[in-house]
Write a structure and sequence with these properties.
There is one protein chain. The chain is mainly alpha-helical. It has one domain. Helix content is about 60%, strand content about 5%. The chain has a two-stranded antiparallel sheet. The chain is elongated.
Length: about 80
């Protein structure tokens, strides 16, 4: 498992209590954290200060992908 995924998973351990009263893993929070990591990756791509006029298309695409991910998963910034 990727180290970053492991770190995100650790943030979700013991975060929910099921109907039986046991503390478990919060899968919803884990999914949200992964989606936010994807969004941050896109933000890094279009906030990169070291680009020239040939990178404009990539900048626009990164912004478009970020927006699509947020809309698809219903995540707000």
């Amino acid at each position: 498992m990727n180290e970053r995924i492991r770190e995100l998973a650790e943030k979700c351990e013991g975060r929910t209590i099921c109907e039986c009263g046991e503390i478990g893993f919060n899968y919803e929070k884990f999914a949200e954290l992964i989606v936010k990591e994807c969004i941050k990756f896109c933000e890094h791509e279009f906030n990169d200060d070291e680009y020239d006029e040939h990178d404009t298309g990539m900048w626009i695409k990164a912004q478009s992908i970020k927006t699509a991910i947020m809309e698809h998963f219903g995540v707000k910034e």
